[in-house]
Amino acid sequence: MGMKGFVGVINLDHELDQLNELTYFRCGAAVPFGGRYRLIDFALSNMMYAGMEDIALFVRRKYRSLMDHLGEGRPWDLDRKRGGLFILPPDWHDPTDTSLGDLQHIHNNMDYFHRSSGDIVVNSGTQHVNKVDFNEVYKYHKEKGADVTVVYKKIAELEPEHGPCRRVEVDENGYVSGFHHERDHSNVYLEIFIMDKELYLDQVRYSIAHGKSYFFRDVIQHNPNGLKIAAYEYTGYNAVINSVESYYKNSLALLNPDNYMKLFHEKPVQTKIKYEAPTKYLESAKVTNSLLANGCIIGGEVENSILFRGVKVEKGARVVNSVILQKCTIEAGAVLENVILDKDVRISGDRTLIGDVIKPYVTAKSTSV
Amino acid sequence: MSKKEVVAMLLAGGQGKRLKGLTRFLAKPAVYFGGTYRIIDFPLSNCANSRIDTVGVLTQYEPMVLHAYIGVGNDWDMDRKNGGVFVLPPHEREEGSSWYQGTADAIYRNLNFVERFDPEHVLILSGDHIYKMDYGKMLDYHKEKDADCTISVVNVTLEEASRFGMLNTDDDLKIYEFDEKPEHPKSTLASMGIYLFKWDVLKSYLIQDETNPTSSYDFGKDIIPLLLDDDKTLYAYPFEGYWRDVGTIQSLWESNMDMLSEHPELDLNDPNWRIFTRSPNQPAQYIAPEAKVSDSIINEGCIVHGEINHSVLFFGVEVGEGSMITDSVIMPNVKIGKNVRIHRAIIDDGMVLPDGTQIGVDREDESEILLITNESL
């Protein structure tokens, strides 16, 4: 294939903060997932495994905890002398700038694209948790001689979280014949596309000149310049996280060993390093069908649940079908069922919190209940 | 390099013969401990938490794993512009080449390294023990006593004393005699092998000792007695807390088991005194519906379908259905099949135990802890 370079873009401009309490203080990309990760780790790890040296993050709102999580990007090998991780807010500095929407974001950070050594733009969001191999996508992109390649997955059984997703109409030759929002269509677009950098920048300039505001919609979906768009079908694990319900359901679905192995086994997902001790199970612990990160101390009962780092479940407490984020304490006597606790929540011993199996009970971070 | 008040020199070249197969390809400081750590994490983390940011690590026996593990030292916050961690293996010199002849020789051969930082004091550590210690407090004590050398000590019983280097002191803990493994101990203060020297004093004695062809070039046997002979000021610094030499299979196992109690003497979970380690970055551990886990420490990356009681599982261990592990230490990435029984054993890292394997059960005398390595099977 020869030397090629990717220029990574993780565009958070369109990601709405739809996870209620979990996105009160952080953007969706920074939401903890899978016991020890944040949603952005999955896209970043995929980019890392594709050998990406330059990754830009277009951020607009509530990105403080995201910045804290990412730091210099060391866990993803992005602490580089050349290139690396760029967190780019939409810094407006040009009084003659007439660009709008995410085109403004791209336009205001043109230097990033000019300076990066890569010549293929890889664009991803963070609401789709998957293991897409960008090298495979690129290979397909070349094979198809495409201007743009988008990634989709055929979903046999559509779930409510697929509702807001764009669908891809694919012709018999593997090219895109259209995009739409028909809710019962199975080809779900995964918010990933790749295209040549020069073409990408040409299209940005063209769209701004024509008063457009949204790169994907105005360049790829409406395709005013007749670009050749290929559709790459991804068949691996994919979870869509765009609501509390989908967050909860897809979290607990990781307890299925098949999902666990697909998401975590090969090419381990990279995340910020913490130095917690391994998890301790006391004599009284009763844990079944659960995922636990390090630093937990378990004296009570834990069933069908996901415990993040440093959670304490005291003897006599009971946690069922729940997702417990970092450093929560469940005191003796408390009962939690179908609950999501954000970070640093303390549940006192006389509490019984029971949520709905579809709509869990959620508590905001750093509260005492 | 600018001046540092203290430079730490960590002796990590030992083989640890009594750890048998565990140290066949590994220096003792690189031996795993406590579900995720290597022994050397303890002195390195103690340095980091004590704000000592310049550490020379003296390696010799099987250094490859150790060198790769320490890397640039970022896991212990020692990737610094000024100072940091330096791996110091023996090296060829103008006058010829040889291995480090002893602990004191190892430091002597790196005089130039220490001199770069022009330190007031040099802290000598070893990579053999599990403990948490604020070296800063020891330094305060050392300065307060205006000692030429301060030696950290623990109280042991008289029966244990004959296994240690014992320090005989006046009431104010001023040392007048060093007794190596005495038959008839006169005190209960055992040296922990942690020495804090005034650098100019240590330097002159290292140079002096090096001229003695019959010396064993050892801190305990040679340097300390030389200082005592010259009436230098030596003080014992009493350390209180958990401190274990994990130099044998039995003691390594016991110390691992000590971590299982609900409130262990050495708390690995103290956010104010983290033990830093190179993270294996594995996914959250999965405890299956049919699994039973109690009184145990389990690390990330483990997949448990069997029953675990009073045991330590390092990262990446898999335990199949119907298997039962009791009173054991399972090193990283061990794959245990179905219906395996393990009792009172240490399983070396990376081993694969097929279905039905029985280890350590049906023994008349269970007192011995079995070490299972690929060579021993």
Automatic annotation (TrEMBL), chain A:
The keyword Transferase applies. Keywords: Glycogen biosynthesis, Nucleotidyltransferase, Transferase. Residues 284-350 form the Glucose-1-phosphate adenylyltransferase/Bifunctional protein GlmU-like C-terminal hexapeptide domain. Gene3D superfamilies: Hexapeptide repeat proteins (2.160.10.10), Spore Coat Polysaccharide Biosynthesis Protein SpsA, Chain A (3.90.550.10). Residues 18-157 form the Nucleotidyl transferase domain. Its EC number is 2.7.7.27. One of its GO terms (biological process) is glycogen biosynthetic process. Signal peptide: none annotated. Pfam families: Hexapep_GlmU, NTP_transferase. GO terms for molecular function: glucose-1-phosphate adenylyltransferase activity. The keyword Repeat does not apply. NCBIfam families: glgD (TIGR02092). Belongs to the bacterial/plant glucose-1-phosphate adenylyltransferase family. This is Glucose-1-phosphate adenylyltransferase.
Automatic annotation (TrEMBL), chain B:
Residues 290-374 form the Glucose-1-phosphate adenylyltransferase/Bifunctional protein GlmU-like C-terminal hexapeptide domain. It holds the Pfam family NTP_transferase. It comes from the Bacteria. GO terms for biological process: glycogen biosynthetic process. It catalyses: alpha-D-glucose 1-phosphate + ATP + H(+) = ADP-alpha-D-glucose + diphosphate. Keywords: ATP-binding, Carbohydrate metabolism, Glycogen biosynthesis, Glycogen metabolism, Nucleotide-binding, Nucleotidyltransferase, Transferase. One of its GO terms (molecular function) is glucose-1-phosphate adenylyltransferase activity. The keyword GTP-binding does not apply. It is an enzyme of class 2 (transferase). Pathway: Glycan biosynthesis; glycogen biosynthesis. The record marks Q60, W99 as: Could play a key role in the communication between the regulatory and the substrate sites. Alpha-D-glucose 1-phosphate binds at Y100, G165, E180, K181, S191. Its EC number is 2.7.7.27. The keyword Chaperone does not apply. Residues 8-261 form the Nucleotidyl transferase domain. InterPro entries: ADP-Glc_PPase, ADP_Glu_pyroP_CS, GlgC_bac, GlmU/GlgC-like_hexapep, NTP_transferase_dom, Nucleotide-diphossugar_trans, Trimer_LpxA-like_sf. Signal peptide: none annotated. Involved in the biosynthesis of ADP-glucose, a building block required for the elongation reactions to produce glycogen. Catalyzes the reaction between ATP and alpha-D-glucose 1-phosphate (G1P) to produce pyrophosphate and ADP-Glc. Homotetramer. Belongs to the bacterial/plant glucose-1-phosphate adenylyltransferase family. HAMAP family: GlgC (MF_00624). This is Glucose-1-phosphate adenylyltransferase. The lineage of its organism: Bacteria, Bacillati, Bacillota, Bacilli, Bacillales. The gene is glgC.
